[in-house]
Amino acid sequence: MAKITFITTDNKTITLEGTSGSVMQLAVDNSVPGIDGDCGGVCSCATCHVHVAPEHQTKTGEATEIETDMLELNDYANEQSRLCCQIEISDALDGIVLQVAESD
Amino acid sequence: MSDILTKESICVVIGASHAGVNLAFSLRKEGWEGSILLFDKDPEIPYHRPPLSKTYLSNEEVNVLKSAESYQKENINLNLGVLVRSINRTDKTIMLSDGTNQAYDKLVLATGARPIIPPISGIETATHLYPLRTAEDVGHIRNAFHTSKNKRVVILGGGYIGLETAASIKKLGGTVTVLERETRILARVTAPEMSDFFMNLHAENGVEVLTDKNVTAINGTNGVNMVICTDESQFEADIIVIGVGIRVNSELANSAGLVIENGILVDETACTNDKDIFAIGDCTFHYNPHYNRHVRLESVQNAVDQAKVAAAAICDKHPVYNTIPWFWSDQYDAKLQMVGLSEGYNETLIRKEESESTKISIWYFKDDILLAVDAINNPKAFVLGTKFIKDGSKIDKSKLVDVSVPLKPDELLFL
């Protein structure tokens, strides 16, 4: 079980609990605004963009090359960017905070 | 405030796949406070369709669009396994298969499409012959595959559905043959170089892809089909998968007197010729201002984006559907991402990145205008192509094909 906190673009805090699947799926199932996951989680649409708080980046790991490539021209991408369909939920994620990124 | 945005208003949505479901949830986001009733004849909770031909053949877990609780939370009334028989525009009601009527203030048609079953002699009596459009279809294919001894699968049609299915079945250990009627696969949607790439990819993975194969008959004996072509070649098949295209489900709209062309005709707000009836997704022939013409698209992107536009329009906002279409396909380890519509191109440029031989992008131009990009294992080319098409950028073609020049906006544009 991992508690995952999303901070939406209008600064609302939503804390959810998950055991498996991707962070994107958890967010979509709970209608977190700003996370659409249109492609279903195959890293093809970039509609699940989040920023991982710097102190939690070791828990989520680094973005893969395909994620950084997908966000290459995104005005809101930075070194904390991840596409959360690529973050698998496990106990290791417990307590992380994710800021939902603005969209272009 | 408009009188439509009241708690008493009713929005009825026919079809609960990507378009219909996204419309329902988008309506809530846009502030619709009235009832939302979703109807679909498929009894399954709405699911993602792209994985059906990709991962779903091996992974039985359906990837749902929204959890059952999400519908409850947003007060969306999901009615599954229900067929809608007709629309009465005068009374503003629909009639359901059990004979009851349901009133609406706004009606949204998200009726999608169904697979074409080609008129081939013996096709009705062939054993283990399936189209691939629904989770139920895939369930049939999966069951037939697991109980089949020889696991010889013949796929009719070398489009994306056929090729993705071929890759998935090969991964499960079947013997797969794809029969394409045209002289090359993906002929309708891509350049010859892409057809070559995918021909080679399938050959490397042990799938036989044959072009110029016009199937005329299927003869069945003892549970095994013999697929016969005009050139007299024959293929034994324990299972046949049909992937030769779709037909738009426009009958309901047509009998209600809505205008049908190459799909249900809608404007840039997804509205039909009846101001209270919208249509979204695969079933629509919609106006796209970027191309200044009507197009019909079969894609998740179109379903989702049109749903958002229609939801906003129903809530009296004034959105315009002006998206550059995009699409993806996964086969083996190749990830294909496409953006734009290549129709009308007169030049293609191919770029192969130095680092990896399978990192390829094809750029479609009409003179100096970039129309579309097909990117294989190259998301950078996909996002850059998207930006260039959107901006109408003028690209230095000699730099584009020079792989020592990085794929970056500043490097590739005329200054």
UniProtKB/TrEMBL annotation, chain A:
Taxonomy, superkingdom: Bacteria
UniProt domain 2Fe-2S ferredoxin-type: residue ranges: 2-104
PROSITE patterns assigned: 2FE2S_FER_2
Iron in keyword set: yes
Cofactor: [2Fe-2S] cluster
Family: Belongs to the adrenodoxin/putidaredoxin family.
PANTHER family named in the record: FERREDOXIN-2, MITOCHONDRIAL (PTHR23426:SF65), FERREDOXIN/ADRENODOXIN (PTHR23426)
Protein name: 2Fe-2S iron-sulfur cluster-binding protein
Species the sequence originates in: Algibacter agarivorans
TrEMBL record, chain B:
Pfam families reported in the protein's UniProt record: Pyr_redox_2, Reductase_C
Record-annotated FAD/NAD(P)-binding domain positions: 11-307
Domain Reductase C-terminal per the UniProt entry, residue ranges: 326-408
Coiled-coil ranges (or none): none
Keywords: FAD, Flavoprotein, Oxidoreductase
UniProt-listed InterPro entries: FAD-oxidoreductase/Apoptosis (IPR050446), FAD/NAD-bd_sf (IPR036188), FAD/NAD-binding_dom (IPR023753), FAD/NAD-linked_Rdtase_dimer_sf (IPR016156), Reductase_C (IPR028202)
Cofactors required: FAD
Alphabetized PANTHER family for the sequence: APOPTOSIS-INDUCING FACTOR 1, RIESKE DOMAIN-CONTAINING PROTEIN-RELATED
Descriptive protein name: FAD-dependent oxidoreductase
Organism of provenance: Thalassobellus suaedae
